[in-house]
Amino acid sequence: MGRQPCCDKLGVKKGPWTAEEDNKLINFILTNGQCRWRAVPKLAGLRRCGKSCRLRWTNYLRPDLKRGLLSESEEQLVIDLHARLGNRWSKIAARLPGRTDNEIKNHWNTHIKKKLIKRGIDPVTHEALQKDHQDTETNNHSTPVESTNVTGSSEETSSSSPHENCSTLSGEPEISFESLCEDEKLLSYLLGDDEPPLVDTMSWELPNNINAQNINSDIGAFASWDDCVRWLLDAQDFGVHDFGFDCFDEIEMSVLDTLETNNKQYSSHNQEP
DNA sequence: AATATGCGCAACCGCCTCATT
DNA sequence: AAATGAGGCGGTTGCGCATAT
User: Fold this and answer.
1) Which of A25, A127, A228, A270 has its CA 20 to 30 A from that of A138?
2) Which bases of strand B sit closer than 7 A to a protein CB?
3) pLDDT digit string (tens) for A8-22?
4) Which domains does chain A have, with CATH numbers?
């Protein structure tokens, strides 16, 4: 007994989404909130698969998405997390507010992988490529290669942990994963045991009983519902940060600050005899 | 100017997990 | 306990654009 397809394949549109379809989906979700994705296409008047709607919403239309390239600190965080979690993109994405698993996966495959390889690091194992060569250089010491030392720096300190020498691509001091391990709570959070302190997406989802007029009065004086949707689409183009949703940045910076502080504490602690 | 090649990203596909019946 | 449905995830594909020849 096979599974039913998630949607009726006949008459289901594929390919790039049009602005009109985006409008319909945004209209529907802003009005009704996220409900059963399978029912969304029908209710929203879209000839799309429910999955496709979910993907479009989560990867592109969500108003809390950041746009643009990952910052260096984000990239470093991705590398660190990947060293620990592997290709569990959704877990990794959960640690980067405003970023999607798809986006991170794409960025990994197109940018970070190459950077790591260029720096002699195997993007899969996070160990050094050409191990034989490096082994002879390091006196045959079988210490695991720094998984996230993407600076390619050859300065080997006495630290023995494979994750201690984390640094940014720009060479700035960065978050050490081992240092994070000193903080059980933080580690637990990073490894996914706890929910990350991200923005609660439900906070902007709208209850079913709120209609377009309510939203208009809440968001501002939009002349029409179309204006509201247009505004939202514009927000996508510019990024929510351009529209005053800096809480996302604050939360992210708070997390990064915590990590950095922890790293410093660990470093100073480590330097003590 | 035309063509080939490479790259980045949005979207799809199929499988897995979990909740519900 | 088994069957089913729905959402979620990771891998892959294909299109559009930029750059090289």
Assistant:
1) A270
2) 7-16
3) 455 788 888 888 888
4) 19-61 (1.10.10), 72-197+250-271 (no CATH)
